[in-house]
Design brief:
Number of strands of chain C: 0
Distance between the termini of chain C: 20 Å
Largest interface: B-C, 120 and 112 residues
Strand content of chain B: under 5%
Low-confidence stretches of chain B: none
Shape of chain C: extended
Mean pLDDT of chain C: 91
Structural class of chain C: mainly alpha
Mean pLDDT of chain B: 91
Number of domains of chain C: 2
Distance between the termini of chain B: 12 Å
Oligomer: heterotrimer
Strand content of chain C: under 5%
Number of helices of chain B: 9
Low-confidence stretches of chain C: none
Largest sheet of chain B: none
Order of helices and strands of chain B: HHHHHHHHH
């Protein structure tokens, strides 16, 4: 019986990895096909970023800059964040600018803006309510980052449609980081640290991060020092921000911790468009997948210890 | 002279940048504006390096008929067709160029990275072993953080997200800060070495 | 109709990449090669429109700023990077860009070192900040390899190892979440946009 047990665990240890891949695929597919409601809990870094963005409501002399520093490979994590923040800005009449320094990010900006605009039915106009600076070569990342500290129009020159930035209506009352006071960097790399090192140190700009979960743990020191105003970490951060926009921005309500605690938004609610709850739907699959990974770790370790014990018995 | 003149340029301009960081005078601002304008003019030519490198690697593969040399035609063909289509019909939304990007580059690029989910599951099963006390601590911390990130963790017990939050805000923060301090000092030291002409690897060649 | 064809092409290429999970095969190799080529080819017109035209062509030919010819010629020198005899010419555009390293020294020292050190030490007003201080100091002591990790010094640097293990565990937990998220995105595309099973 004991030998059978050991042989079973040896066979489990040598399981073909393709069976593992099938389990992974099913763990993702089934929760997506059968949506269920689950609570999203808001964390402090997301709350702080939301409050900072919201503080620019209806202000002509304040704007936020969203820097898209990623490509399609990290879209599942970052795209829902970008759409949520754009939706927040359009709901609350906050001027928003977008820019990218990677060629593969340029269509993602258009896609995010169009998704937020069309799904939300916002009557916002390019050059008046928002402006896409478009793609600038990566070699100009630092020159433009530093140049915006003196004069945004001079640093960027033209927007994605070829218009001179200084002539746009949205640029009224905006000159440099004193007015473009919040920069949110969406990236899968450490580019947010470049914004912190240069824009924050030299010009005092507030920096927020929309970052993949891989890099999120690295940025906690910057959150503690206040160099980062707030952070959206991975799909969870996106889900939290989606919830905050649903509760507050879409109802034109100011943030309140009490309202967040008491509010329950079911994902199956058909009134919320799919594109505005995509991260929360993904978190359901994430829950199942995390349990699956934990089970794999436990099973793998049980097999390892059983095999080791039987080998030690044979030797000794 | 082939190395000395570039080094003199780096050292000279670098020191001017150090002065520019601390001096807000108009001459300092004009210097920066001049550098910015010239950098913008140099920037488009960097893409030439990538194109040349790709052509050299794949044309060598085709010439020598190395393993899978036939796929080099696919690579070069993809490059030429995409560039041609972009120049011919523009890069705006709705053009063939954007169609190629959205239906070929975007899905494949996203899928390449999504393969990692399978590999991490396979690694979790086959490789993550609690061989020592330290490894066990690592795995326990990982499990708590994994559960703390998902709604299910909070529903099991409120201690899970609270502990996860503490792990991220205290030991994880300390660990990342210490490593970050080392990295920061390393960056500063390397930058200083480049500024003083001690570090020259970026010049390449002999 | 056109939308359906686009989705079919995207889904086919997605499945070609996924086929690598079974084993390496010609479909995967084809998709991989196509990805490299299209990615590179995609950058060329974009750089031409967004960098060459506004920063080189327009200033020289439309605004008559002929001084821009000098950095333009410097940029062209990049092509000599692969030449055996003339590669030294490519150093000039490189060093012009590298000059900004003069700014890295004071700014990275401030943001990455001084501010971080200050926050580690001040204020030590609760148990968590004290634990952070102990963690940072012990980890830095661990990485000081000029002194042998023996006796009291060894015991103290061991504390740093514990902190690092917890930190790496947290990173691993987050990494799992990141990787799974990317797969969720692709599955959402296949089930939602292609098959219409998720709305």
């Amino acid at each position: 019986m004991s030998n059978n047990n050991t042989r079973f665990w040896d066979r489990m240890q040598n399981l073909d990895r393709r069976y593992i891949y099938i389990v992974v695929a099913l763990a993702i597919i089934i929760p997506l096909l059968i949506p269920f409601n689950s609570k999203t809990y808001i964390t402090e870094p997301v709350e702080n970023l939301y409050k900072k963005v919201d503080s620019f409501t209806d202000r002509e002399d304040r704007a936020i800059l969203m820097c898209f520093m990623h490509d399609a490979s990290t879209m599942p994590e970052l795209f829902p964040m970008e759409v949520s923040i754009l939706r927040h800005c359009f709901e609350r009449n906050i001027k928003v600018f977008t820019i990218c320094f990677l060629p593969t990010a340029a269509p993602l900006i258009d896609y995010a803006i169009n998704t937020a605009k069309e799904v939300g039915g916002f009557d916002v106009k390019s050059g008046i309510d928002y402006c896409n600076f478009g793609y600038k070569p990566y070699a100009l990342f630092l020159p433009i980052l530093l140049g915006m500290g003196e004069d945004i129009a001079e640093a960027v020159e033209t927007d994605s449609e070829g218009r001179k930035v200084e002539n746009l209506e949205i640029m009224k009352d905006l000159k440099n980081y004193n007015e473009l006071n919040l920069v949110i960097d969406f990236s899968a790399s450490a580019s947010v640290q470049t914004w912190i090192t240069y824009a924050r140190v030299k010009f005092g700009a507030n920096i927020g991060a929309g970052i993949t979960a891989v890099m999120a743990a690295e940025n906690y020191p910057f959150l503690q020092t206040g160099q980062l105003v707030g952070m959206l970490g991975g799909l969870k951060g996106a889900a939290e921000y989606e919830k905050l926009v649903d509760i507050f921005a879409s109802n034109n309500v100011v943030f309140s911790k009490e309202i967040v605690k008491e509010t329950w938004i079911p994902i199956t609610d058909k009134q919320i468009p799919y594109q505005f709850k995509i991260a929360r739907i993904g978190m359901n699959a994430q829950s199942v997948a995390h349990i699956m990974i934990i089970v794999f770790i436990i099973l793998g370790n049980i097999g390892y210890f059983v095999s080791r014990k039987s080998k030690n018995k044979e030797l000794g | 002279m082939k190395r000395q003149i570039p080094l003199i340029i780096v050292i000279g301009l670098g020191l001017l940048f150090v002065i520019h960081t601390f001096v807000p005078h108009k001459i300092s601002e004009d210097f920066y504006e001049w550098w910015q304008t010239w950098s913008k003019a140099i920037s488009p030519f960097m893409v030439l390096l990538g194109i040349m490198s790709l052509f050299m690697v794949h044309s060598t593969k085709i010439k020598r008929k190395t393993a899978n040399w036939q796929y080099s035609f696919v690579t070069l063909g993809g490059l030429l067709i995409t560039a041609f289509v972009g120049f011919m019909w523009g890069t705006r939304e709705g053009t063939p160029y954007m169609w190629l990007f959205k239906n070929i580059q975007m899905p494949m690029s996203a899928t390449m990275f999504s393969l990692l989910a399978f590999y991490i599951a396979s690694a979790a099963y086959k490789a993550f072993r609690a061989r020592s006390v330290e490894a066990t601590v690592l795995l326990v911390a990982a499990v708590i953080v994994m559960l703390g990130q998902v709604p299910l963790g909070a529903q099991i017990s409120h201690w899970i997200p609270d502990t996860s939050k503490w792990i991220l805000n205290v030991p994880n923060l300390a660990s990342k800060r210490a490593i970050g301090l080392g990295v920061g000092l390393g960056i500063t030291a390397t930058s200083l070495k480049i500024l003083l002409g001690i570090e020259r690897k970026y010049l390449g060649g002999d | 109709m056109f939308g359906t064809i686009s989705n079919i092409v995207a889904a086919f290429l997605t499945l070609c990449i996924f086929s690598f999970l079974y084993k390496d095969n010609p479909f995967y190799k084809f998709a991989e090669s196509l990805l490299v080529g299209v990615s590179m080819g995609y950058a060329i017109p974009l750089v031409y429109e967004n960098a060459f035209i506004p920063y080189v062509y327009r200033p020289i030919f439309l605004q008559n700023k002929f001084l821009i010819i000098i950095p333009t010629l410097m940029g062209v020198l990049y092509i000599f990077r692969f030449s055996k005899n003339l590669s030294w010419l490519s150093r000039y555009p490189i060093v012009f860009g590298m000059a900004i390293v003069g700014m890295f020294v004071p700014m990275s020292l401030n943001a990455r070192v001084l501010v971080q050190m200050r926050s580690t030490m001040l204020p030590l007003d609760n148990i968590n900040t004290i634990l952070i201080f102990i963690g940072v100091v012990t980890i830095l002591m661990y990485f000081f390899f000029s002194k042998e990790h023996k006796g009291t010094y060894g015991k103290i640097s061991n504390v740093g190892i514990w902190y690092m293990m917890v930190g790496f565990g947290a990173s691993f937990g987050y990494t799992v979440m990141a990787r799974i998220s990317l797969l969720i995105g692709r599955i959402q595309f296949l089930l939602g946009e292609c098959l219409g099973l998720i709305k």
